[in-house]
Amino acid sequence: MKKINGNYQKLPGAYLFSEIAQRVKAFKVDCPEADIISLGIGDVTQPLAPAVVEALHKAADEMAASATFRGYGPERGYDFLREAIVENDFRARGIEIESDEVFVSDGAKSDIGNFQELLSGDVRIAVTDPVYPVYIDANTMAGREIVTLPCKPENAFVPELPAEQVDVVYLCYPNNPTGTTLTREQLKVWVDYALSHDVLIFYDAAYEAYIQSGDVPHSIYEIEGSKECAVEFHSYSKTAGFTGIRCGYTVVPKALRAPLNSMWNRRQSTKFNGTSYLSQCAAGAIYTPEGKKQIKATIAYYMENARLMRETLTGMGFTVYGGVDAPYLWVQTPCGMTSWELFDRILRAAHVVCTPGAGFGDAGEGYVRLTAFGNREKTEEALRRIAKSVK
Ligand SMILES: *Cc1c(COP(=O)(O)O)cnc(C)c1O
Asked: CATH: 3.40.640.10, 1.10.8.50, 3.40.50.2000, 3.30.70.3040. Which one for 50-288?
């Protein structure tokens, strides 16, 4: 078939999570009574904050009366939300972003996947390895070449600047899957490089709300000069449990050297018809004093899981990265095991599911990813079982 996009054939199969599901299923046949706990899920588990639920109810009631009913909203998002974003996520940190640089969306994945449409077909892309697969897959679909930047203990999981000329670099910090971060100083190296080499940075800040350390930037715009070279993607999915509600936003500065702000506006007004009013009201509630307090408590709950996991696993002799400023732990496999070997071992001996690092790229071999998104009791039980199984 000449009519289809042949680049889709170059995509790696959506193999990671289906392979995990298959192995879990096979294990359940062997051991039907096993109570399996997943520390592999990339989804949140705690319910929405009460302030968010209240905003959803109120928005639904508005939709029920002709005087307050809303149809299509502005493509960039409602003013009330974009202004709350500018005020709370940026101005409060000393960053000046204008509200017409903020584009509200139905989440970061679609924006990250779609934004590459604004680039020409022949630009060279760099991504870290291991990596969130969306950056690679979206560019593979568009037929682009991709360079990988390995992140390992040898470089403290800080990617080295590309040796060859690239045009766009995707950075995600705090990182999924490794849970590692860049300090302000380390991120500045990237911004300076981007400015001097005419490179665009696509910065994924999906886990910004999990940052605990003072020297880790919440936004790339904390770094001087970044408004000329960086687009930043935000999501409420992990910040406030919006994986099912769907809302996020992208910052496209007007100071960028390429006219991406007007291009993205044009693109979105053609191909996107706005985020649901209910989702935007829900997102707005995160910025109220009550909402802020409530989402902070949920993040603290997950980060306490992360602390427990980190301490317990380290105590068992595992080498563990991440889990300090991110809900992910990147655990080195012992004795040269492959990541799938450790996956099988933990599944069969402890009835716990993790995510093999090899599924996130070549440099992920030799690691598994654990997430802190579980509930406390199950996380503790999983740790007890892993401890017993490694004795
Ligand atoms: C979860 C996640 C997102 C957020 O995606 P949404 O579409 O907003 O749910 C973005 N980037 C990374 C790296 C993620 O892990």
From this structure: 3.40.640.10
